Amino acid sequence: MICTRFAPSPTGYLHIGSVRTALYCWLFAKKNGGKFILRVEDTDLERSTQEAVDIILNGMKWLGLSWDEGPYYQTERFDRYHAVISQLLTTGHAYKCYCSKERLEKLREMQILKKVKAKYDYHCRYQQPDNIPADAPYVIRFKNPLEGLVIIEDAIKGKIEIANEELDDLILARTDGSPTYNLSVVVDDADMGITHVLRGDDHINNTPRQINIFHALNFKPPIYGHLPMILAPDGKKLSKRHGAASVLDYKEMGILPHALLNYLARLGWSHGDQEIFSLEELIEFFDTYRINSAPAALNMEKLLWLNQHYIKTNTIDSLLGHVAYHFEKLDLDVSKGPSLKEVILVQKERVKTLKEMAEKSACFYTELAYEQISKEKFLVTQSKKILEVIYHHLTHLENWTKEALHACIQDTIKELGVKMPELAQPLRVAIIGHTTSPAIDSTLWLLGREKTLKRLSQSIQLIVM
Ligand code: GLU
Questions:
Q1: I need a labelling partner for 237 at 20 to 30 A (CA). Which of 27, 126, 456, 460 fits?
Q2: What are the residue numbers of the active site?
Q3: C-alpha 21 – ligand 1 centre gap (Å)
Q4: 112 alpha carbon to ligand 1 midpoint, in Å?
């Protein structure tokens, strides 16, 4: 059975590049009727935090990237790693290294001076020191093969060959006995039956080392595929300062999870010219052959375009929960205004993000506050008559429906012989304090009869003749 895994280290935020890796692993598993495992690589006790674990779990849930197994935590598997390390010692694939820090530092300095590759010189591999005190500190090193090639048939980058002499006798266990990344990853990938490892190409140097450990343990290595980086729009390494590195940045921006998934799927992978993909289509069409091996740069405009598409075309019910999040963030009390469904109905054609939807709808839930510039421009003598007439008609309107309001506005501009903006703009300012709002009939409808009439009358009184 095909089995993939996403194995983030909980040392900070969940990087958008990691999310794309997770998505590709998820799609690949789903497409092949396989399994997707979540594994938290928290062996770096100093840098791992519970907060970062929560960010990973919440981010994955928000995106809907559900896992079939896990989350496994590496810190809960130390016994297993220790057992494997002992096994490697017993089978002669690993050895204790007593070299002191000072010796290793000197060695490095010499190698730099001689301009040769800095690597361990196999000192303890060939000769264990005599009379070692029982409590002498040591690390455990892997006996990497000295000759031959490691060949990686990378699913994305193609064939990669590395000579074993380029590789070090890497450390499997530190002086405190804790296992290192390369050891624990191999043990987990083997134990969890991982068949395909898709991960960032920052790990490409680890792959030949891990393959050698797999062989030493008599396990079959998985198929590897290394994904290129995602760059910032400016072509530089995408970091926190770009404000778009963490998956939660996108949630805060008001991006829909599916828009982000669709965007990330296409960033570095393609299926003809198709841009819009349902989840089912992504699962059906995804393959590793069409993953681009060159880094791709983020394009915010395209993401916003996709987001707008999904806001427009998704059902109101499916948007509700996501929109509610942004209302809460703005501290808007939904019980103080129109229902969220009504707001979504009116705004979904008009906004690019859910945050924008909440911001542009705030006026329906807050007290009337005039924007000074709009007040000075529109709540003026020439508008007073217009506002009085519409106020009069609105008070007599039987049904506060969008259709009735539309007809009422149309009748009023005809009656007064004015153009739409001459009525709509002062009316907007009179009832919501500024001029940016949906169509005027929708604005009236959302604000409701009571608030509209109260605010309108209050604003009319403000205008001095
Ligand atoms: N924990 C590693 C990371 O977050 C990933 C390891 C792997 O995918 O093999 O970079």
A1: 27
A2: 240
A3: 10
A4: 30
